[in-house]
Design a protein that fits this description.
430 residues; alpha+beta; Rossmann fold; Dna Ligase, domain 1; D-amino Acid Aminotransferase, Chain A, domain 1; 4 domains; five-stranded parallel beta sheet; five-stranded antiparallel beta sheet; 27% strand; binds glycine; EC 6.3.4.13; metal ion binding
Length: 430
């Protein structure tokens, strides 16, 4: 079985690792990939929004399955072009990916499906200063200001400072995009990934991301600095409730609209007074939660993604998981997220083990690349994700931090508190 994975981050590295462990031993290709993936897959150059080039690459490889990692090619319709050319694809159509591509569309679907979410109001480019101020008056005291387009997880500002909210509104409108103002949802956040094939919904383990750059949730929002799974504080039956109240109604609504969803539906939720409420949907695996979630998946990944792509998810046996916990911690380049430094040398990356290993994101091979974990340089904001597994969250955290502490890179930083609040029992639902 030839599998082509599209994408270049640690999420795609985690997908490749999972696929490489499948007993079917698929032959793996990735595009555009990164320097750390060469041991698992053949790396091909690609512009991920170029549908024609993606079809040409899948044809050249003889791909039996194409797995699309990031949102940008999904929203650009790359999956539609691949399906039209006869390929099995893991990833929703352009129309279904609008659940992530347009937050206003997602709100409309949730309203039709009766799903609990924040109230929202759109400000269109060209709105007057008076209209913007009036809209800001209707929200607060914590403002949630979103770019109603794709921003790689970085287009959201959550702030108690009205002037900061206004500044973000101006910057998004200035870039020609509409703004979405949302009411602030209180309560701990949950990321629940579901495999969706029409009306069939199969949840993976729930996880929690850490979106702020620095410890204690301080600093700017990022694409995600670390995650852990499962969630010891989630009420019993919590996953089933999210599936019943959120994911299944949305899947049914997408079928009813004639745009059935096929792929991974990522529900980002806050667990508040009234239970789960949707913060946002994404049309793909989340990064970095995937690095932790797939670490515990026992069910062979290639067969599972292939079943979604071929519309046979309902016939799959229940998923199997390892007991225990998994934690991922992101090593970020100095200056991330505003202006990450590139070209810094990495050293001391330990050899991968079953319970603790490294996944690459923004790395490139240095001229003198070596097998001992030296020879890589930074090439992006999030450089590596390390993963630790264990019988419980404390052990998983110790293993992840034991690994990341050995890695050296000038100017780099990582959060020291990924999973700490959950380990210490400091998270509860209202
Ligand atoms: N975990 C945030 C994201 O994938 O967008």
């Amino acid at each position: 079985m030839n599998i082509l994975v599209i994408g270049a981050g640690a999420r795609e590295h985690a997908l490749l690792r999972g696929l490489s462990l499948d007993p079917a031993h698929p032959s793996l290709h990735v595009a555009p990939g990164n320097a750390g993936m060469t041991r698992l897959a053949t790396v091909h150059p690609l512009s991920v929004t170029d549908a024609e080039a993606t079809v040409a690459l899948a044809t050249e490889i003889g791909a039996d399955l194409v797995v699309i990692g990031p949102e940008v090619p999904l929203v650009a319709g790359v999956s539609d072009a691949l399906r039209a050319a006869g390929f099995a694809v893991f990833g929703p159509s352009r129309a279904a990916a609008q659940l992530e591509g347009s937050k206003a569309f997602a709100k409309e679907v949730m309203a039709a499906a009766g799903v609990n979410t924040a109230t929202a109001e759109q400000i269109a480019p060209g709105a007057s200063a008076e209209d913007i101020e009036a809209a800001l008056d209707r929200f607060g005291p914590t403002w949630v200001v979103k770019d109603d387009g794709l921003a790689g997880g970085k287009g959201v500002v959550v702030t108690p400072r009205r002037e900061a909210a206004r500044a973000h509104v101006d910057s998004v409108l200035g870039a020609g995009n509409p703004v979405l103002l949302e009411s602030f949802l209180d309560g701990p956040e949950v990321s629940l990934f579901c495999l969706v094939d029409g009306e069939t919904v199969v949840p993976l383990l729930p996880a929690q991301d850490h979106k702020r750059a620095f410890d204690n949730d301080e600093g700017p929002n990022t694409g995600g600095m670390g995650a852990y799974t499962p969630l010891p504080w989630l009420p019993e039956g919590g996953v089933e409730r999210i599936v019943r109240e959120v994911c299944e109604p949305v899947a049914r609504e997408m079928v009813a609209r004639g745009t059935p969803y096929s792929g991974l539906l990522y529900a980002g939720l806050a667990w508040g007074q009234n239970g789960p409420a949707v913060v946002e949907f994404n049309a793909r695996f989340g990064d970095p939660e995937t690095q932790a979630v797939l670490a515990l998946l026992r069910t062979p990944l290639a067969g599972l993604l292939d079943a979604v792509a071929r519309g046979t998810l309902a016939q799959q046996p229940p998923l199997e998981w390892e007991e225990g916990s998994a934690v991922t911690v992101v090593l970020a380049a100095g200056g991330y997220p505003e202006s990450p430094r590139k070209g810094d040398a990495l050293a001391g990356i330990p050899a991968d083990e079953d319970q603790a290993y490294t996944l690459h994101a923004g790395t490139a091979a240095a001229a003198d690349a070596a097998e001992d974990g030296s020879g890589y340089v930074s090439a992006g904001g999030r450089v590596l994700s390390v993963v630790g597994k264990g019988g419980d969250l404390a052990q998983a955290r110790r293993r992840a931090y034991g690994l990341i502490e050995q890695i050296e890179m000038e100017g780099s930083f990582y959060r020291k508190d990924i999973g700490a609040a959950a380990e210490e029992g400091r998270i509860s639902t209202p």
